[in-house]
Structure prediction request, 289 residues.
Amino acid sequence: MKFGVIGTGKLGTSLIKLLSQDNKLRWLVARSDSSYEKISQIAMKSSVYRSIDAINVNCDCIFISTDDKNLSIAIKQLAANNAINHANTFLIHCAGSIGIDIFQPLIDKGAKVAACHPYQTFFAENIESFNNIPWGIESSNESYSTAELIISSLKGIPVRLSANVLKQKSLYHLSAVASSNLMTAAIQLAKQIADTSGVDSSVFLPEILKTTLENNINSLGDKSFPLTGPIARGDVEVVKSHIEKLAQQPHLRDAYIAMSLATVTLAYSEQLIDESTYNSFLKILQMNY
Prediction:
């Protein structure tokens, strides 16, 4: 099976690297000068187009990995390109919160489609990041077997999203955002506070981060909430002192308060702290926010 890739962001570049390594990439689209120069060095055996309109070589499957705001535009441009044999091309978009209805212009041309979202972060553009990751798939019954085959060929784990998940697909995507993006923000906050305190974050943070992550992964199969520290203990005065110490770094103070509000809310919802303690935390956090 031969592929085309539209979109040269982190996911798109990772897909290009993976498919090029296996000699499966027939072409890609790189619009900007910077992406064209970068990608041309990676995919030297593949055609590189500067626009979707320029595509004149067919392939078996096209991955569309543009950002969400440009997805509809890319689909309309593909549908308008009559050099593409739409009826014999399988098309996949990788947006986590968007369904397959967006493909209607291509469906009208006879194309088979699927939304396949890799539940992973691709910051390092590393092809190993594809190994054994779940892909949330939305497709028709007719198209699912093809989507399943393609994702499996990328060493992924195809998971067909249920009708209930699809009704609130943005929440499915939000869970990935919370797993990666929000966790990154929490770690970067810890790093900046540690650096501000004068300790070497590269020495002090790794082991506590590893243990915390391991505790939380282990808790996924049960109802435990592996929280320790002042909020779990109900120690309002310690949190108050933290806020005071960050008075000269308002960006760190505001981030700490926002994350503490989230932690307090979750701790209360899981009955880790009682209502009185919860309200005491809210008082000192909200008055400083």
